[in-house]
Amino acid sequence: MDLRALLNPDGRPVLQPPAFPAADSRRDAHALRLEEAHGTTVIAVKYRGGVINVGDRRATANFAVMYDRAEKVLPIDDYTLLAISGSYARAMEVVRYLRHAFKYFERSQLQPMSLDGKLSELARVIAAGLPAALQGIGGFIPILTTYDRQAGEGRIFFYDGMGARFESTEFGAAGSGSLQIRGVFDYIVKTRRPFHEMDREEALREALLLLDIAADLDAATGGWSKVLPLAKTISEEGIGDVPDDELRSLVAEIDRMNQRGL
Amino acid sequence: MGYTPFDFNEADRHRRDHVEDRLREGSPVVGISFDSGLLLLTVRRSQRKVFEIYDRLIYAGIGSQADIEAVRVGSIDVAHREGYERSPDDVTAQRLVGFALSPSLKRLFGDQFNAPPVIRALFGELGPRPEDDAFYVLNYDGEFEQHTGFAVLAGVPEAEDRMALWLVGVGPETTREQALDRALKAWAVGAMESRRRRMSAGDEEIDPLLDIEEGEQMAGFLREELKTGVVEAGILDRHTTRESRFRLLAGADLEPLLREYR
What we know:
Chain A is an alpha+beta fold and 262 residues long. Chain A is built from eight helices and 13 strands. In chain A, the strands form two sheets. In chain A, strands 1, 4, 5, 6, 7, 8, 9 and 10 form an eight-stranded antiparallel sheet that branches. In chain A, helix 6 runs antiparallel to helix 7 (200-217). The mean pLDDT of chain A is 93. In chain B, helix 4 (157-167) packs antiparallel against helix 5 (176-199). The model of chain B has no long low-confidence stretch (mean pLDDT 92).
């Protein structure tokens, strides 16, 4: 007799990646598409000393605003943030799964999971949702950001819908508003300076400005007239929330710019 | 030849003697709940002894290395399965120890075809306030006790009694520094008593309320022990903003505590 077997007589796995079955028919898939909540725009940029993640607070279902206080930038462990766009239900389950999977590894193996291991795990759960995503339901695209303590810099990874993983040198964006602002990132990098050379405040201001432009040009992305946007950083010290006061004053600065008709 | 009640008692007695003999060698463990967290402290020579089980659960054991490890991994499995399938809020020491570990250890201990588990374990659970913290001491035969405020683990019951006397008075206002100091001294009390019991082979009667030789004798004992032993202190932080509440205190955190024993 062995303790592990006694503790788990049914032999259930400790953690199973969230299953997300495809719909049985095209009609079901269509109905689900209309009901499913979606996260809109999330942005990640580097700065000198780490990475900043910002996101609007909106979750939409078809043409309805489902929720205006959505948390779309979520800590997975002390140095990893997942910014999510697309299917809210699936993204939340994936976040719950990854939190447990990374921590389970670290607690049981007494060493943190390698960055490569974490990135592969995320690719696997994205790929597992593919059959449903092909029907237009359950698809989600994350941006994974982390602080590389060996290299002493922030890192940004983005994915496609099949789980292909790419590393970005400067920035990443996902969600409905991300396409509209794609070129603005390049313009900032080429005319001002690369994000990783900016200090925290400058990078944060640029990121919020990008979010504001996304809200302007994308019908689904929410503005900040009611609720402040989300902003989190990862640095040597781990994950930090940008204080509300700082956010409020940067947002007000951008609003003043908008009021001048710029 | 039949199996009589006498045989059962005899076998049970032999198994208990065997386990308790082996536990005698164990280095005591002290658990204290203090204002900003919960602490488990021991002094070790070889293997690491204080472990994180789940978000708010911490564990240490004495006994056979393999059994300590089996309980550790089994607990991590149970906690993560439950936390992922239900909610992290539902993972409590009460459920883990009372419903999972205790019955399993009882079965293992009663299984005459296998060597009995050699372990005595301490689980600490961090609550939102110090009053909500809980400790569970789990015995090799599945028996367990719940404690609040503090709890101790040693290879001989007399050592545990003395350590507990030494710890009376720690409470919600105890600071981390005070808790570390009390814990290390309680460890010394337990280790000294365990050694004395081993030497006298438990034959002669020693008054359990005999004054604990304080001051110089304890300091001398600690100075001697800490030449070869390492203080290991794991805490669960009540107010952290990090994802993980657990951390092992590193050299700099322990420096003020250890300075006087160099």
